[in-house]
Amino acid sequence: MADVLSQGEIDALLSALSTGEMDAEELKKEESEKKIKVYDFKRALRFSKDQIRSLTRIHENFARLLTTQLSAQLRTFVQISVASVDQLPYDEFIRSVPKMTLLNVFEPTPLDGRFVMEINPNVAYAMLDRMLGGQGKAVNKVETLTEIETKILSQLFQKKLDTFREAWESVVDMDPYMDELEVNPQFLQLVSPNETVVVISLSTVIGETSGMINICLPHVVIESILPKLSVHLWMQQKKKEREPIELESIKSNVKKASLDVVVELGKSQITIQEFLNLDRDDIIELDQLIEDPLLICVGEHPKFLGQPGKVKTKIAVQITDHMIEGGETNE
C-alpha cells in the first residue's frame, strides 16, 4: 500500500519549497533514481487485487444486508459500511485485537476451516441493550458475560451468519454455523501465525454508539474458491434459469394484473377564454369524423383501433386493428 501524505505534511512540503529549504530539482532527481522496494517474505501478499476487489464487493453487500436486518430487529438507527479490506499475517491480526472483545468463531460449511468475526464490545452491548428493551447504551463488561447474555448474543450472531451466507451465495453455497463465542484473542488459534488472512473492517453505528466489526478470512480456508472471486468469471456466469413451475406462477400472477383501457372519441383545441365560458349543454366539436376508427390506449400507450357499438344495453368498442410501435397499424 503506497504511503499517503497527510494535509499537514503537504503544507510543510509546500512551505519548504517556497522558503528554499528544499530544492524542487533535487526532488525530481530523487524521483528519477531507481528505488528499491523492500519485500517482507513473512507478510506475503497471497490475494490478487482482483480478488480483494471481489471480497470488497461481497462485504459491501453484506454490510447493506446487515444494516437492513439489524435496523428491523433492533428498531433503531443502524449504519454499517466497509471501512477497509487488508491482507496481513494472522499473528498481526490477533495482536491488533483488544484483549477483551467478542470473537464469534464460526465454520463456513462446506469450506474446511473456521472464520472469526470480532465485534467491538460497545457495538455488541448496544445490540444487547436494545434486545432487552433498553435505549442501546454501551456497557463494556465483556469479561463478566452472564449465561443469559451469552445465549442472547449467540442467537443474535447466528442471525448475522444467515446474512453472511446470503452475501456469499453468488460465489459459494455456504451454510455457516456458530462454533464458539470467545472473549480473549490469545486463546484463539485459527491458523498458523504466519498464515495470510484478509481482514474486512466494518464501521458500525447503532443509535449513538459506534465501533468496528472485523471479519477475518484465512487464505487457507478460502483458497479453494479463490478462482470464483475473479471479476471476469462473474461476468461470464449465466443467470440461473427459472424452473418451469416458477415461470408459470409468474405468468399467472402477471395475467391477473389490472390495466386501464381508455378509448378516445376524439380531441379538440379551444382557447382559455372559450374554456372559461363553457356552460351546461354547450357542444365541443371534435377533430375526428364519425367514420374514423377510435384510438384505444392501454395505460398511456396506444395499442388498438376500434369502432363504437352496443352490446345489449351497454356501450362497447369493437377492436378492428392492432397498433404497432411508432403508431402504425398492421396494414
Automatic annotation (TrEMBL):
It comes from the Bacteria. Keywords: Cell projection, Cilium, Flagellum. Signal peptide: none annotated. Residues 254-322 form the Flagellar motor switch protein FliN-like C-terminal domain. The keyword Plastid does not apply. This is Flagellar motor switch protein FliM. It comes from Evansella tamaricis.
